[in-house]
């Protein structure tokens, strides 16, 4: 359908954005490349620290059996690095327990402490820290063959524990900050999309009101005329019935299109070209529709080249005149309406609709009172202004100014 009073349904954003927010990316179940790189680096670090401890132990000529057990526990601790992501607390507890007996497992215990601090709360990491602190005091009880560490080595070990704990807590805090920022960005994105969808729904509702109110008021006016003149000539009855049928058909098409848009989630990606939208050029046809309905409408268009007006300005002026004629049919006293449109580029476009105000609605046509509010909002969004109300002469005046840039 290509009627000038067609519904404006152009979408300002991509349809995928209006149909709803995209789902957040799902983290893969396995390790990512970055995870593999970190695990390999920590595994090699664990092997290096364990190898250094073994070489140092060989220089001290330890007993064969305790040294073999020490080395085996250190090797098992290194293998535990691959379990640190799935079982960080269990891995840390075992590594710390091994380090009480095995000197070669001490480096892996620090890696385990870092893992717990980076993935768990401080309350969970606290017992692991306490275990690391007690290691130098428990080792002489289970390894009499190992000399007691001097006080400066114990303090150095405590400093390493504190540094590793602080590093892990920093990594955890940074990860939490990044997650919070990502959630905040996603929340703001969803809020923006919700605002866009709501704005689009409001625009559709406003357009539907402008179009359907005009068509249904024409239909009601003709039906009321038939009701008041049952003895009218057959030709007049047939003509009025044809107008009623045409108005009802167009109103149903507009309504069907809007409902289809809402059901499809505003996804217009697979549709054909959009219907042409009404502009200043279509004002005479709009006035003729009202005249055929029995209204007396005087149109004074003082725009040199109506086609030169910007599409948005022309469409806004068309809707203002359309709403003015609809209100005149609903509330006018004698059907006399005057429409004046004038302006030029750089001066703006003025629209004025006047009609004799009536005390009650004509033919029982209901009015929700939201049409003028919607017009004021439309004019404000375009950078213009709108005024309406009764005049001292007993008329109702609807006046608007819309910017028309050079």
UniProtKB/TrEMBL annotation:
The chain crosses the membrane at residues 36-55, 89-115, 122-139, 151-171. It comes from the Bacteria. Keywords: ATP-binding, Kinase, Membrane, Nucleotide-binding, Phosphoprotein, Transferase, Transmembrane, Transmembrane helix, Two-component regulatory system. One of its GO terms (molecular function) is protein dimerization activity. The keyword Nucleus does not apply. Gene3D superfamilies: 1.20.5.1930, Histidine kinase-like ATPase, C-terminal domain. It is an enzyme of class 2 (transferase). Residues 200-264 form the Signal transduction histidine kinase subgroup 3 dimerisation and phosphoacceptor domain. Pfam families: HisKA_3. It catalyses: ATP + protein L-histidine = ADP + protein N-phospho-L-histidine. One of its GO terms (cellular component) is membrane. PANTHER family: NITRATE/NITRITE SENSOR PROTEIN NARX-RELATED, NITRATE_NITRITE SENSOR PROTEIN NARQ. This is histidine kinase.
């Amino acid at each position: 359908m290509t009627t000038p009073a067609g519904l404006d349904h152009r979408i300002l954003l991509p349809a995928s954005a209006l149909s709803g927010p995209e789902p957040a990316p799902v983290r893969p179940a396995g390790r990512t490349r970055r995870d593999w790189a970190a695990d390999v680096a920590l595994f090699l670090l664990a092997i290096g620290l364990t190898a250094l401890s073994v070489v140092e132990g060989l220089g001290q000529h330890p007993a064969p059996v305790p040294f073999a057990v020490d080395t085996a526990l250190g090797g098992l601790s290194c293998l535990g690095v691959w379990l640190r992501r799935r079982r960080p607390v269990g891995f840390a507890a075992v590594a710390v327990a091994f380090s009480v007996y095995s000197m070669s497992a001490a480096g892996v215990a620090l890696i385990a402490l870092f893992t717990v601090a980076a993935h768990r709360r401080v309350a969970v990491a606290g017992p692991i820290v306490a275990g690391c602190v007690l290691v130098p005091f428990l080792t002489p009880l289970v390894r009499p063959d190992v000399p007691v560490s001097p006080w400066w080595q114990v303090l150095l070990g405590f400093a390493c524990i504190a540094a590793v704990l602080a590093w892990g807590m920093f990594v955890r805090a940074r990860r939490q900050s990044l997650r919070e920022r990502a959630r905040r960005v996603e929340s703001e994105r969803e809020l923006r999309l919700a605002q866009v969808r709501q704005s689009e729904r409001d625009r559709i509702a406003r357009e539907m009101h402008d179009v359907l109110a005009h068509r249904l008021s024409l239909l009601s006016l003709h039906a009321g005329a038939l009701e008041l003149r049952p003895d009218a000539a057959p030709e007049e009855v047939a003509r009025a019935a044809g107008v009623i049928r045409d108005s009802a058909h167009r109103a149903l098409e507009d309504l069907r299109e809007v409902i289809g848009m809402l059901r499809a989630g505003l996804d217009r990606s697979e549709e054909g070209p959009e219907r042409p939208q009404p502009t200043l050029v279509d004002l005479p046809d709009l006035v003729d529709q009202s005249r055929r309905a029995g209204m007396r409408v005087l149109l004074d268009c003082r725009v040199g080249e109506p086609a030169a007006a910007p599409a948005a300005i022309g469409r806004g002026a068309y809707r203002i005149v359309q709403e003015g004629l609809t209100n005149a049919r609903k509330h006018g006293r004698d059907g006399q309406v005057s429409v004046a449109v004038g302006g030029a580029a750089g001066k703006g476009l003025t629209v004025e609709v006047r009609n004799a105000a009536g005390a009650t609605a004509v033919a029982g046509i209901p009015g929700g009172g939201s049409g003028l509010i919607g017009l004021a909002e439309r004019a404000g969004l375009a950078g213009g202004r709108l005024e309406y109300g009764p005049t001292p002469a007993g008329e109702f005046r609807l006046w608007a100014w819309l910017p028309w840039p050079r």
